[in-house]
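pasting for the record
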Amino acid sequence: MIELIYCDEWLLVANKPAGLLSVPGRGEDKQDCLSSRLQHEFPDALVVHRLDMATSGLLIFARGAAMQSRLSEMFRERLVTKRYVAVVAGKLETEIGAVNLPIAADWPNRPLRKIDAELGKPSLTRYRVLSRNTDSTRMELEPVTGRTHQLRVHMAAIGHPILGDALYGDAPNIKAAERFVRPLARNAGEGCVPRLLLHAQSLSFTHPVSNMSLNLECAPTF
């Protein structure tokens, strides 16, 4: 059962569970995804942006091709503000800051991305510390740009990989995520445990038809 956070005749905002693809992948075993599930109830629902399979949280879907084009343009023009919650390894001492490091595809090690000063595309992530434990930090992350794996690569690059990250963290990092997952989330089938502790918590934008300011939120389960 997909949780809808917002629904009208022009667009939908859904809460994607961790472990579910945003769109179909290659192969028969990768056809189950959020977009196909939504299209059973809303046949006109079309993808506007994506989240990694391991990431949970808010995704916008357009209803119809014209709205898909308008919303995609809003993303290109950075008129949609996205904020994530993550738990990262270690104690990050700076309260507020930014990571401005260029990201490129790591072709020999696909699907990994890497910091590459020569070939990387400009990539900017703003962050704010929410709380600290002895060996981890809860953060709010705002990707100003939208590169693949941007938040995961940037946090790993500054020495604080997101807990549960099977691509950019080591085995202890992955195991450490388990203690943050609430029992309810495990019972609800929200992906594997431990999971990547990254959740798209909020979306803010002006509705392209009604001009109403939408500030949508959905708290993480970790």
